[in-house]
Input
Amino acid sequence: MIFLGTYKHTLDNKNRLTLPSKFITKLPKNIYLSRGFDGCLEIRTLEEFTKRYEYLNQYSENKRDSRNAARIYFANSHDVEIDNAKRILIPTELITTANLTKNVVIIGVGNKIEIWDETQYFKFQKQTTPMYEAIAERLDEQNK
Output
C-alpha cells in the first residue's frame, strides 16, 4: 500500500477526523495512531506498525536511548477504529502532543499517513520545500 497526496480536513468538536476517501479504500477498519516526528501524528496499518515495532525492538534494552525511544513511541500509540462515517477518534493526549487545532492537513507519506496542524504543516513545508534538491543530493551521497 502506498499513500500519496495532501488533503485539508477539520477536527470536529469531539476530536473526530474524517479520513480522505483515497486513504479509506486502502485501510483496514483497525489502524494504529502514533506520535510522529516533527510535530505530526502518524497512521500505520498493522503490518507497518509491526515493522516499526521490529525496528525499535532490534536495539538492546540495555541502552537508555533504546528504552526511551520504545517508551515514547509505544506510550504515545493507540489502536483506533475507523467508524462507518470514515472517521477516527484522536485521543486528547495526541491532540496535545501534535498541537492540533480544528484545521489539519493529512498527507500520504508512502507507507504511512501523517496528520499535521495546518499552520504547522505549511510552516514546515515553507522551510523544507526550497531544500528539496539539496536533501535529495545528500541522500544520494549517503547511498554511494
Notes: Residues 46-57 form the longest helix (12 residues).
